[in-house]
Design goal:
Blueprint (H helix, E strand, L loop, with lengths): L1 E2 L11 E7 L10 E5 L6 E6 L3 E7 L2 E8 L7 E8 L4 E9 L2 E6 L8 H8 L2 E4 L2 H9 L1 H8 L11 E2 L6
Parallel strand pairs: 2-8, 5-10, 7-11
Antiparallel strand pairs: 1-10, 2-5, 3-4, 3-6, 6-7, 8-9
Length: 165
């Protein structure tokens, strides 16, 4: 990933989902790959590294995302987002039950000091040729992991329309 030179701006006809990973010592060397698995074929979103955030634009509606860590099936997790156009939503990456995972940032948290610290402590990044090449090299394995998607994704792993701003 490489730092973006563009500001984070939501398009009026799309929702923006920001995946953020504040810099911390614990697990700092582990990268968290992100995929949009809403459709039949996974779409590479980016890689969250320590101190980074990745913005991803989607149409309004329901979307499903997947993270993969440590290469095996045990490190695969799924998240859902129900979003409205013109709004920005956030997922916060941190270690959950020993593995990197995402937690939806609720609308009520967006004005809090903790969220402000996460936002200020992360740099917006975009895919580089290296991350694009990595996603292509891992396309087959990613498609297999996508098949692990559960029928139901719990509410605690789901962004809701009211969580956007």
């Amino acid at each position: 990933m490489t730092k973006s030179k563009e500001p984070l701006v939501a398009a009026p006809d799309k929702a923006t989902i920001v995946f953020m990973r504040p810099g911390k010592f614990v697990g700092a060397a582990v990268a968290v790959p992100l995929f949009d698995v809403t459709g039949q074929e996974p779409s590479f979103v980016g890689i969250l590294e320590s101190g980074s955030k990745v913005a991803y634009s989607v149409p309004a509606g329901e979307h499903v995302f997947m993270t993969t860590v440590f290469g095996g099936d045990a490190g695969v997790r799924f998240y859902k987002a129900n979003v409205e156009a013109g709004k920005t939503y956030y997922f916060y990456a941190h270690i959950i039950q020993g593995i990197w995972g995402l937690e939806p940032v609720r609308g009520s948290q967006l004005e809090g000091d903790e969220f402000k610290g996460w936002d200020k402590g992360t740099d917006l990044t975009v895919n580089s040729p290296k991350t694009i090449a990595w996603s292509e090299e891992n396309k087959e394995g990613t498609a297999k992991k996508r098949l692990l998607k559960p029928e139901v994704i719990s509410d605690d792993k789901t962004l809701r329309v009211e969580d956007g701003r």
